[in-house]
Amino acid sequence: MGCGESLTVKKNRPVNLRLTTIRFPCTAIVSILHRASGVILFLFIPLLLWLLEKSLHSAADFAAISECFASPVSKLFLLGLVAALSFHLIAGIRHLLMDIGVGESKCAGTMSAILVFILSIIVIGLLGVWLW
Questions:
Q1: Residue 28 and residue 89: Cα distance in Å, rounded?
Q2: N or C: which end of the chain has fewer CB within 10 A?
Q3: Alpha carbons 128 and 70: distance in angstroms, whole number
Q4: Domains assigned to the chain
């Protein structure tokens, strides 16, 4: 090929640029949500540690924080953090089991991903009832 010649490559692959039409498998959704819940937990660790430190400082500070968490908005925020924590924990156990060789097949991976969703919904529901 010379300097002026162009290389044309015919691509027979389908190109889908509409991301809303892509259907992810259940295992991919669990993996993405596991990462997202980890990021959420990482970002809110400083706030939670500050609240813990403040609540242990004095009885008045503890009462003030308890009063703050009595409002429905803060209960919803706390439920979101607890939901992220419980989903991350359950999905993390799934990943650890797969790391030691349990459930590595496609069928077992799909079933364990569905089980993660079911267990997370149950745990989040129970924690929501307990919080309210």
A1: 17
A2: N
A3: 14
A4: 25-42+72-131 (1.20.1300.10)
Cα 104 from Cα 89, distance rounded (Å):
19
Would the pLDDT of 61 be above 70? yes
Instruction: Indicate the pTM of the whole model.
Output: 0.81
61 Cβ partners below 8 Å, 6+ apart?
Answer: 54, 55
Return the HEC string of 4-73: CCCCCCCCCCCCCCCHHHCCCCHHHHHHHHHHHHHHHHHHHHHHHHHHHHHHHHCHHHHHHHHHHCCCHH
Q: Give the pLDDT of residue 58.
A: 95
Residue in 93, 102, 117, 96 with CA at minimum distance from that of residue 28? 117
Q: Kindly tell me if the per-residue pLDDT of 38 is higher than 90.
A: yes
